[in-house]
Structures are given as C-alpha cells and as structure tokens.
Design a protein that fits this description.
- The chain is an alpha+beta fold.
- It has 2 helices and 7 strands; from the N terminus they run αββββββαβ.
- The strands form 2 sheets. It has a 4-stranded mixed beta sheet with strand order 6-5-1-7.
- Strand 5 and strand 6 form a beta hairpin.
- Helix 1 crosses helix 2.
- The chain is elongated and about 45 Å long.
- The N and C termini lie far apart (about 30 Å).
C-alpha cells in the first residue's frame, strides 16, 4: 500500500504546483512468460503465455503497475485503481481537471 501511494505522491510533487489539467492513461499489455510461473495462462490475442499487467500513467509518470494473470478481462481492476488515484489527486489538487484515456480492453483472453 505504501509503494502504491508513493507513485502518486511523487507525481504530485513533480510540478511544484497544481496543474490546470492532467491526463491519466490506463493500459493493459502483455508480459510474456518463458517458463511455468504461477498464474501463467495462454492469451489468444497475444499468442503467448503471459501476465497482463495494468498500468496507469500521466505523461512520463508511472502512477500504478498491477501484475495480473492473463485469464482476465483487460479492464479488470481499472475502476478500483482509478478511484484510488483520483481520490489522492483530488485531495491535493481539487481544481485540477482530470481526463482519463483508456485502451478499449476489448481483447478476450484465450
């Protein structure tokens, strides 16, 4: 929990003052596996055994990285992560406009 908070805290310290607007990008992508790791599943879209981590970024700043198995929907857990991050940002920057961009997460696991 502390490391999750640290990513957001470092992001908010970087500009020195609250920006007018920020963009949060959410994306899930493959992390190929080359063995028999726990949580290993074959993902038809990526045509590989992999994990399917969820990343939340804003510009060059990483706000969250969640390692997940690939037998889930690409958007799984995104709402919880977004609520956590936006809550922390709102507590410090109540007037900052927050835009959210997200991958369609329409790829079904194989």
């Amino acid at each position: 929990m502390a490391i999750e908070s640290l990513f957001v805290d470092l992001f908010m310290e970087a500009p020195g003052r609250a920006p007018r607007q920020i963009v949060l990008d959410l994306d899930a992508t493959d992390d190929p596996l080359h063995g028999h790791q726990e949580g290993r599943f074959f993902h038809g879209y990526y045509d590989n055994y992999c994990y399917l981590p969820l990343y939340v970024t804003s510009g060059r700043h990483l706000l969250a990285a969640k390692l997940r198995p690939s037998n889930i929907d690409g958007s799984a857990g995104a709402e919880v992560e977004l609520a956590r991050i936006v809550g922390r940002i709102r507590a410090n920057w109540p007037r900052t406009r927050i835009l959210v961009r997200a991958d369609s997460a329409s790829h079904a696991s194989g």
